[in-house]
Amino acid sequence: MAKNTGNDHRRGAVTARTQFQHSNGMFQKRDERSGQFMEVKQSTGPFKGVAKEPDGRDSKNS
Question: What pLDDT, on the 0 to 100 scale, is given for residue 8?
C-alpha cells in the first residue's frame, strides 16, 4: 500500500494500477484487475507511484 508522506513524495507503489503513455504524450492509468481505463493526467510527466507498462513484474493483481 502506498502512503503519501506530505513531503511531495510517496512511499511504496500504488497497487493494482499501471500507467502508459499515449502517442500524444499524455499518461493514462489502467486498473490491473478489470483492465478498465481510468483517468488521463493533464499535467506533464507520469503519475507518481504508479508502475509503467510493461514493467516486467508478474502481479498477483492482474
Answer: 79
